[in-house]
Specification:
The structure is a single chain. By secondary structure, the protein is an alpha+beta fold. It has one domain. The model has no long low-confidence stretch (mean pLDDT about 90). The protein contains one helix and four strands, in the order αββββ. A hairpin with a 2-residue loop joins β3 and β4.
């Protein structure tokens, strides 16, 4: 084999290795970006679930307060949310009745997806 052919094959080998390293670097950058996008998508999903749970709990509390149901006051009630198709979620409502006209509703939500969990507790006043 001539010296010129050996140099050419060595140059091609170095070129192929350089191209492979550039492709590997691009894959690393793209994978990192996709992980960030996946995290943000999960966070947005959890916020939407939390909002839906909060709204449902508040609507349930308002309906039961208007109906005049006395057995719901000062108890923690866990609502059935299976029809909402939210996996790994819970909704708890506590209605307290202070001496004035307004009722106080505390809504506890919990939802999780992948390795993220979001829980919140909010209080509302309902005056009728």
């Amino acid at each position: 084999m001539k010296m010129k052919d050996k140099r050419r094959k060595g140059f091609v080998l170095i070129l192929v290795l350089l191209v492979l390293s550039v492709i590997g670097l691009e894959m690393f950058v793209l994978a990192s970006g996709s992980n960030i996008m996946l995290f943000q998508a999960n966070t947005a999903y959890l916020r939407a679930c939390e909002s839906n749970l909060m709204t449902s709990g508040l609507a349930w509390a308002e309906k039961n307060i208007k109906d005049g149901s006395k057995e719901i006051f000062d108890k923690t009630i866990e609502l059935d949310i299976t029809n909402m198709n939210i996996k790994s979620a819970a909704l708890r409502v506590v209605i307290s009745a202070p001496s004035n006209e307004e009722k106080e509703v505390q809504i506890n939500t919990l939802c999780s997806r992948a390795r993220q969990t979001r829980s919140s507790t909010n209080k509302f006043r309902i005056g009728l």
